[in-house]
Amino acid sequence: MAAGATLITFDKVWKSYGQGEAKVHALAGVDLAIRRGEFVAIMGPSGSGKSTAMNIIGCLDTPTAGTYSFMGIDAGRLDRNRRAMLRNLYVGFVFQGYNLLARTTAAENVELPLIYRGVATRERRDLAMQALAEVGLVGREHHTPAELSGGQQQRVAIARAIVTRPTLLVADEPTGNLDTARTHEIMELLTRLNTELGLTIAMVTHEADVARYAERTIRFLDGHVASDSKNLEVA
Amino acid sequence: MIWETVRLSLRSIRRNVLRSFLTLLGIVIGVAAVIAMLTIGSGTTEKVKADISKLGSNLLVVRSGRPAGPGGPGGLDQVVRPLAEKDLAALVAHLTGARAISPASQKQVRVIFGTESLTSGVTGTDSAYLDARDWKLVSGRPFSDSETRSGTGVCLIGETVRQQFFGAGDPEGEIIRVNRTSCKIIGLLEPKGYTGFGQDQDNVVLMPLHAYQRRIAGNRDIDNIYIAADDRTPTSELQPRVEDILRDARRITPERESDFAIRDMTQIADAMASATTTMTGMLGAVAGVSLLVGGIGIMNIMLVSVTERTREIGIRLAIGAHEKHILIQFLVEATVLSLLGGIIGILIGLALAGLASVTLTIPFVPSPAVILLAVGFSALIGMVFGFFPALRGARLDPIDALRHE
Predict the structure, then answer these.
(1) Segments forming the whole domain that contains residue A218
(2) Of the residues A124, A183, B37, B345, which has the maximum number of CB atoms within 10 A of its CB?
(3) Could you report the per-residue pLDDT of B164-188, keeping only the tens digit for each?
(4) Do the Cβ atoms of A117 and B312 come within 8 Å?
């Protein structure tokens, strides 16, 4: 995999909601590029368009106008099911609220994306165990979310995101529900995945401390990219 | 994949045991009702058929009075002329295609032995009666021709009469009192059980016609003439011949209606069986309506389930589930749910039918076809009524679904 090649491009991307006078532009002609292996923090106040941008990056949403290309594919023009396939093959998701299936064990949660890939039961189990080991949750495989702490739940979510060996990890406020110590642990984990696996990470956050773990910060304001800068190396 | 989905749906059903159970109730009751109705219905049909064949298959019964019509049997415009010995004689002399022809006059009469008494159906007849009705003797002998002619005080008794007077003992040679006359028991009839109308066919006493006429009826009338067709002759062919001979014997001019009626037991059997079948079908249809109601219950609960699990659907969609995966997941859940209800319903329905067959003394005839149909139908209900909620879940926008609280 050629590190540094462009993974994601926004070419004059617009996203509009509503009609006529009430029409709102969440994104107003955004140009953006993210290369493979980058760890990008996306910041901005609520309503700035950062969430909309993230949804398009994660192939959950499509632009109203302009082109979104992912891995050279015009992902903005694909139908629901093709985007679902793209997500399943190349994108992992981590959410603020963990979004694990309740009353379902950690291992089963991690196996979930593999089920939709049609991976055989045994291989699924092995891959899930491996992913859980990578996030440091050995021995917790058969706990349900209710039996795990917030930090542990987010680790399960990360394991679920990386079990398919995705190209891109989309993280939406991954530490929003965690205390400082837990936040640090999770960010260390994401940084490690970024460097060790070469995983491209796009992370939305509103905390500057968290954004500092990324190597680049993109700030959104009123549907535009307000600033795009390299971060200083974290100590 | 499918097995995985079935396991998943079982788990989600288990999670909401009470709710699932209440949802199932509609299907359970519906299927149980259908199964019970149809099983009891076919048992009743069997019973009716068996009863009618006990009356004697290929049997014509002639009795005096006009054929049943709008005015009812007998009518008002003519005095009922009873059947007489010469009518019987004419039939015996001229009728072809009959295996047995026998007269019978009946009356409920008090029968006494020692200090015991019993009201029993006493029939005066001749030796051809057993053949005509297809009745058999367990022990003893039928009346001889001379006993029939002279009206000797001898009789054959049914099982109920024997039990009342003699328990399990041998009744032969004992003397019982019938009305004010006494007769000697010469044989015991084979037990036949109850008819579908609750009539005890074993509470009978048979005696020679002349003895009956003289000592019990006090006249020379014949109530009925039983005519059993032989194997080659259908009753429908025999009936007009009987009518011709009797009109002739009774000197009925062509412009007048017959003053006797001929009943074809085969026709009655068919009519009764088809009436039972119609009844069963109707009850089954009514029970089927409750299946529909059950289906709506399933739809309702699946809609609730989809709404409740919107976030889960969002996660699955984000992770890469296709629309069809979500659709199948909820369809399978609805189907498993209603299939479960169907199976419980079948078990309850069969139990009810079993209970009914014991209390109503009808045969228990569960039909594999009906059971399979019920299984298939309940699965179909799940699929049909689960489809709309499942589609609704599958069509959710993953972004909205993930935002759902």
Answers:
(1) 36-61+80-230
(2) B345
(3) 898 888 888 899 999 888 899 999 9
(4) no
B367 & B315 share domain: yes
| Pair (B181, B95) in one structural domain | yes
CA–CA min distance B403, chain A (Å):
10
Asked if B41 and B115 sit in the same domain, the reply is: no
C-alpha–C-alpha distance, residues B327 and B319, integer Å: 16
Q: How wide is the angle at C-alpha A231 spanned by C-alphas A228 and A234, nearest 5°? A: 160
Q: Considering the domain boundaries, does residue A5 fall inside one?
A: no
Instruction: Give the chain B residue whose CA is nearest to the CA of A89.
Output: B320
Say which of A84, A100, A101 has its CB closest to residue B321: A84
Tell me the pLDDT tens digit for each residue of A66-124: 999 999 999 999 999 999 999 999 999 999 888 999 888 999 999 999 998 889 989 99
Tokens 């003053």 identify what position? B259
pLDDT score for B70: 46
* Residue A54: both structure tokens together: 């993230």
Q: Over the stretch B194-217, which tens digit does the pLDDT of each residue have?
A: 765 667 888 999 999 999 998 888
What ipTM is given for this predicted complex?
0.91
Q: By mean pLDDT, which of A230-234, B221-225, B326-330, B339-343 is the weakest?
A: A230-234
Instruction: Check CB contact of B19 with chain A, cutoff 8 Å.
Output: no
Residue A160 at interface with chain B, using a CB cutoff of 8 Å: yes
A67 in a structural domain = no
Residues of B in contact with A110 (CB under 8 A): none
Chain B 306-365, CB below 8 Å of chain A: which residues?
311-312, 314-325
pLDDT at residue B47 is higher than 70: yes
- Kindly tell me the burial class for residue B225, based on how many C-beta atoms sit within 10 Å of its own C-beta (0-12, 13-18, 19 or more): buried
